[in-house]
Design brief:
With 292 residues, the protein is of the alpha/beta class. It has nine helices and twelve strands. The protein has three domains: 84 residues, Winged helix-like DNA-binding domain superfamily/Winged helix DNA-binding domain (Arc Repressor Mutant, subunit A), CATH 1.10.10.10; 93 residues, D-Maltodextrin-Binding Protein, domain 2 (3-Layer(aba) Sandwich), CATH 3.40.190.10; 106 residues, D-Maltodextrin-Binding Protein, domain 2 (3-Layer(aba) Sandwich), CATH 3.40.190. Helix 5 links the parallel strand 3 and strand 4. This is LysR family transcriptional regulator.
Length: 292
Amino acid sequence: MDIRQLRYFLTIAEEGQISRAAKKLHMAQPPLSQQLRLMEEEIGTVLLERKRNGKTMELTEAGKILYKKAQNILNLFEESILEVKEAGEGIRGSLSIGIGSSCVSYLPKRIQYFHENYPMISFKLWGGDPFELSKQLENRNIELAIVRLPLEIEDLSMIPLETESFVLVVPKDWENFHSKEAIHMKEIEDVPLLLVHRMKGEGLYERVVEECERFEFQPNILCECPDMNILLSLVEAGIGASILPKSSISGFRNIEIRVLDILDSSLQSEIALVWLKQRYLSKAARKFIELF
């Protein structure tokens, strides 16, 4: 068994069909099927079997074990090749970074500095919520990510960047809040709330609900959405209010909203630069980390 066959096996497993895998690998279907048979003969067990519908394939128990091991082997192989190449070259290539929508302010000056000092490096930026960026890290699509914690991923290295309080964001024309610069949690009890909710995993939504329960009331949640831009547009339209980390609204200066401090809340949000402990980081990634 060799690296090439492992790539074939992973692609078949991910695509679920020989035909789709062959198309993705830019090869004919019969030789791909033959390579899978050769692997199974060498190992002495079936790795993939057809589902009842006969159209797609799924991993057997043995196949699941090999799939996980093959991913690790290929990651190590590709990172080893990169490390060897970089030993004889300067800093060049592409740096892939994930960025949460509320963390963008950490990038512009650092990218500008990096471009001036390392002009052979280009950037690939991936947006998304913390769950999506965790998956991109695990799949090796990005080397670094700037996100709000927590992340449901183990074996991470990180540099904490900021811990900040939450604020209440209300429509500018809400009369009940016109004369106020700050409020107490209990004043939020009957306010219709529009909350950020991750696609998967726990995050800001769960923290806000827990804080309301700590003050012995159930939040009046009108809407939940993973996109902060949409929520703030709804706040501006007068639909409801939102509870958000203070810096997350710094990029929305032109919208008609008011921002109030919450005096007695213990809610805090942590932002960090993170990367996988067990992977080789490119020279570019290591230099970028130094900027923090």
